[in-house]
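Researcher: Structure for this, please.
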Amino acid sequence: MNSLTRRLSFVLFTLAGIFFASNSYAASLDSLGIPALTLTKAADGTENYTVTLQILVLMTMLSFLPALLMMVTSFTRIIIVFSILRQAIGLNQAPSNQILIGLALFMTFFVMSPVLNEANKVGLEPYLNDQITTLDAVKKASVPFHRFMLNQTRVSDLELFINMSQTNKKYDKPEDVEFSVLIPAFITSELKTAFQIGFLLFIPFLIIDMVVASILMAMGMMMLSPLVISLPFKIMLFVMVDGWAMVMGTLASSFGTL
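Model: Predicted structure, token format:
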């Protein structure tokens, strides 16, 4: 297996490991009874996936990459804020969806760079150097993602999903929370934070709309849409205050990156 294939396999295995507990998932695969889907066990008791299984999981997980990107990274908060900002200005097609998604992706890479670098250091590099097994690499690389999501998750949201899980399991420390509980709590917190930021962005543009609408009504120009007049003023205000830099800086700072 060449280096590129090993890197892709590792990344997808890491994302897959976020959703499936390694021990239970390995046990279920081992119980299938299919020779091609077996685990190799070393003399010291460690386990590793066979090459055939790695390729199978690699091809299967490709369809889950978009969902994984949104669920375990900062992408959700960023794209929602950008969408609300575009609606607040009053522009339906500019910037286009492709530009917003591309901008959100690069912002996500920027915000997640410390997490990705740590995952590469503790998981990918030892795996490529054949120092640890695939399962160990997945476990080690999942830790930075777990820490990132835990830091961005509200305690109330985390307690909500712990109670909803109905497992009656007591956690000695937050780091013990499983991904199956942490991910929905993280997404809920991200949605709330994104809408809070979007509300603050909406206020100045809403004030401009109200002022323009009041002026037009006082002048008796009720047939003229206020949006036609307020749109240039909102764009001018946003450009004059260097709005894009402020929004991106605020988003990055909200994750503790800056």
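Researcher: Any notable elements?
Model: The chain is about 75% helix and 0% strand. The CA atoms of residues 81 and 196 lie 9 Å apart.
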